[in-house]
C-alpha cells in the first residue's frame, strides 16, 4: 500500500517536472527577445531620426538652389532689358558691357547658391559627427569626474597626514622655542648693557679729525646740504634749540629722520644704539634706546 502510493506520487512529480522544464528556456528566450526588440527599436529610432535630418537638409538645400536660380534668372532678364535699351540708343559697346556684367553676376549668384546648398548638406553630417563627439565628451567627462573624486580622496588623506606631521613639528618647535626665548631674553639684556657701555665710550673728539671736516665740505658742495623742507611729527610744534643730555620724544628720532649714510655729509659712522637724526636744520646724535641726545651740530643744513 505504501509502496504503491509512493510510486504514484513520484510519477506525478516527474510528470510535473517534465511539464515545467520546457517553460524555463521559453521564458529566458522571451526575455532575450524582449531585450533584442528594445535594442532594435532604439536603433531604428536613431536611424529614422538620422533619415529625417538628412531629408530636411536635402529639402532646404533644394530650396536654396532653386531660389538662387530664380535670382540669377531675374538678374539676366534685367541685364537683357538694360542691354536692349542701350542698343536701341545706338550704344553697342555699353550694351555688350551690361550683358557681360549681368552674366557674371548671375553666374556668381548661382555659384553662391550651390555653395550654400553644399554647406547645408555638409551641416547635417557635421551635426551627426558633433552628436558623436558630444557622446564621447560626456563619457570622457564621466571618467574625469571619477578620476577627480579619486584624486580628491587621495588629496584629503595626504593633507590629513600633513596636518598631523605639521602639528607634531609645531609642538616640537614650541618646546624648542621656549628654551630659545629664554636664551634670547638673556642675550637682549646683555646687548642692552653693551649698548649702554658704548654710550659711555662715545668720543666727541671726532671734530679734530680732518676727515670729518663737514664745514669745509659744505662750503664746496652747498647743494648737498639742502635736503628739502623739514616736517615735524607734531603739527603745532616749533623749533627749539637742543643741547647734549636732552631727552627727545620717540617720534623725533623715528627711522624717517635717520641719516642712513653719514659719510655722505662727512659725519663719522655710528654704532650700537646711536643714530644721526635730522632735527630741522640741526643734526643730533641720539641714543635710540633712551632718546637722549649725545651730540649736536647746529645749523648743519641750509
Polypeptide structure, described:
The chain has helices spanning 2-20, 23-88, 92-201, 214-220, and strands at 274-279, 282-287, 292-297. It has 302 residues and is mainly α. It has two domains: 2-160; 213-232 and 240-297, inner membrane protein cigr (Nuclear Transport Factor 2, Chain: A), CATH 3.10.450. A three-stranded antiparallel beta sheet has the order 1-2-3, with no helix packed on it. Strand 2 and strand 3 (292-297) form a beta hairpin. It starts with a helix and ends in a 5-residue tail after the last strand. The model is unreliable at 16-26 (pLDDT under 50).
In summary, what is this structure?
By secondary structure, the chain is mainly alpha-helical.
Number of H- or I-type helical stretches: 4
Topology as a string of helices (H) and strands (E): HHHHEEE
The biggest beta sheet, please?
3 strands, antiparallel
- Structural class comes to mainly alpha
From the N-terminal CA to the C-terminal CA, the straight-line distance is 144 Å
Q: What's the number of domains?
A: 2
The percent range for strand residues is: 5-15%
Biased composition (Low complexity): 84-96
Pfam family, one: RcnB
Region (Disordered): 26-194
Protein name: ATP-dependent RNA helicase
Amino acid at each position: 500500500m505504501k509502496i504503491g502510493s509512493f510510486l504514484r506520487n513520484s510519477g506525478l512529480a516527474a510528470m510535473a517536472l517534465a511539464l515545467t522544464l520546457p517553460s524555463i528556456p521559453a521564458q529566458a528566450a522571451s526575455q532575450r527577445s524582449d531585450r533584442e526588440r528594445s535594442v532594435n527599436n532604439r536603433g531604428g529610432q536613431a536611424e529614422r531620426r538620422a533619415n529625417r535630418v538628412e531629408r530636411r537638409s536635402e529639402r532646404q538645400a533644394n530650396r536654396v538652389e532653386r531660389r538662387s536660380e530664380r535670382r540669377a534668372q531675374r538678374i539676366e532678364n534685367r541685364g537683357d532689358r538694360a542691354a536692349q535699351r542701350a542698343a536701341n540708343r545706338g550704344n553697342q559697346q555699353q550694351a555688350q558691357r551690361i550683358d557681360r556684367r549681368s552674366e557674371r553676376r548671375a553666374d556668381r549668384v548661382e555659384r553662391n547658391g550651390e555653395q550654400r546648398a553644399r554647406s547645408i548638406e555638409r551641416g547635417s553630417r557635421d551635426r551627426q559627427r558633433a552628436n558623436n563627439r558630444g557622446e564621447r565628451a560626456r563619457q570622457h567627462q564621466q571618467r574625469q569626474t571619477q578620476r577627480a573624486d579619486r584624486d580628491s580622496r587621495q588629496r584629503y588623506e595626504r593633507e590629513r597626514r600633513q596636518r598631523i606631521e605639521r602639528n607634531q613639528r609645531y609642538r616640537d618647535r614650541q618646546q624648542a622655542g621656549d628654551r630659545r626665548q629664554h636664551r634670547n631674553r638673556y642675550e637682549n639684556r646683555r646687548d642692552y648693557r653693551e649698548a649702554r657701555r658704548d654710550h659711555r665710550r662715545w668720543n666727541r673728539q671726532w671734530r679734530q679729525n680732518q676727515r670729518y671736516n663737514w664745514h669745509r665740505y659744505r662750503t664746496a658742495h652747498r647743494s648737498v646740504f639742502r635736503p628739502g623742507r623739514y616736517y615735524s611729527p607734531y603739527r603745532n610744534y616749533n623749533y627749539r634749540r637742543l643741547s647734549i643730555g636732552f631727552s627727545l620724544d620717540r617720534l623725533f628720532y623715528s627711522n624717517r629722520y635717520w641719516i642712513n649714510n653719514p659719510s655722505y655729509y662727512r659725519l663719522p659712522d655710528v654704532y650700537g644704539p646711536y643714530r644721526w637724526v635730522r632735527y630741522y636744520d640741526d643734526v643730533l646724535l641720539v641714543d635710540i634706546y633712551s632718546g637722549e641726545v649725545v651730540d649736536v651740530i647746529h645749523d648743519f643744513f641750509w
